[in-house]
Design a protein that fits this description.
Elements (H helix, E strand, L loop, with lengths): L9 H52 L10 H8 L9 E6 L5 E5 L11 E8 L5 E7 L10
Antiparallel strand pairs: 1-2, 2-3, 3-4
């Protein structure tokens, strides 16, 4: 009595390997981009915290700060934003015009290290403030609004 052979043919194995290779070629760059975006979320959240505090400052004083705030410690002392919220930033600068500029620290990815992310205020006639994102980051990493 003959036994029927079990197993995969060489062609079937090569097709599976090719499919896995194609999926990996697509998935790995997408995964890398998403991890960079996730780490940059900490930067955008920290800058949003500063923007909220700066908006409150403007509403109370009807003016932006009279002197630039250029360190994390100064941001904490001037606006009450904890320095732990600014952990992924190498530097922060709040100009006398209200423009907030954050410099991205090393450790996220080499493609974004030392890039800047800026929040620029626009004050409407009713004293409401809207913020616009810009900077030297690649456009895919700059928040829309």
């Amino acid at each position: 009595m003959l036994r029927k052979q079990k197993g995969f043919t060489l062609i079937e194995l090569l097709i599976v390997i090719a499919i896995i290779g194609i999926l990996a070629a697509i998935a790995i760059p997408m995964y890398r981009a998403q991890t960079i975006k996730a780490k940059l979320t900490e930067v955008t959240n920290g800058m949003s915290n500063i923007a909220s505090a700066l908006s409150a400052y403007y509403q109370e004083n009807d003016a932006w700060p009279s002197a630039a705030v250029t360190t994390k410690a100064a941001v904490q002392n001037s606006f009450g934003v904890a320095t732990t919220a600014l952990g992924r930033m190498a530097g922060i600068n709040v100009a006398t015009t209200g423009v907030i500029t954050g410099t991205i620290a090393a450790g996220i990815d080499g493609s974004v290290t030392n890039s800047t992310l800026m929040l620029t205020p626009s004050v409407a006639t009713d004293s409401s403030i809207s913020w616009d994102w810009s900077g030297t980051l690649p456009p895919t990493y700059i928040p829309k609004r």
